[in-house]
Give the backbone structure.
Amino acid sequence: EVQLEQSGAEVKKPGESLKISCKGSAYRFTSNWIGWVRQMPGKGLEWMGMIYPGDSNTRYSPSFQGQVTFSVDKSINTAYLQWSSLKASDTAMYYCARRDSSGFGGAFDIWGQGTMVTVSS
Amino acid sequence: DIQMTQSPSSLSASVGDRVTITCRASQSINTYLNWYQQKPGKAPKLLIYPAASLQGGVPSRFSGSGSGTDFTLTISSLQPEDFATYYCQQSYTTPWTFGQGTKVEIK
């Protein structure tokens, strides 16, 4: 079964750094973009951007450019989302999702279970 | 960025009702429109992509239509397991953008 498994919930203080993970299984990890989606408490879905594990090509939403960094480790089929200095406003659920293999457009056909990040002093 | 506007933001309906949710894009997105269902505490699930193609395993009571700027998601006969929040999303251009969501509640 194709799956994305995300790392567990995190509680951090403002100013701390954080890296959360998303591990793919049962498919060729390097062949599909991996996207990140933020959902703040009680709010809707926000597209943060995507990374292509094959060559680490990235697409960031302007809203998140410079605020977060996407990376991958192909050897262990894992994508990462990281912050260098967290803010309270980063408190949210973060989902990774696989973009399907279509050439143009596309959709997120497989989702991770989400990682809850809480930033509080 | 392309703005996606859903209506209504919420609705109350009974089991067996026909439900229609609309999604409007701020510019033409051809048929690059996806619909997701999200239940409380769960990750979103892809229902329809693109615009009118049902994903495997999605019940046939769900249907999608539209092209250009106006799209609809219809549930022909609402079932208890359909009470959830529904999001449209455009994938015509990056940044992909989501609608604000439509919460379908039990009347």
Residues 18 and 76 of chain B are 5 Å apart (CA to CA). Chain B touches chain A at residues 1, 30, 32, 34, 36, 38, 43-46, 49-50, 55, 87, 89, 91-92, 94-101 (CB under 8 Å). The mean pLDDT of chain B is 97.
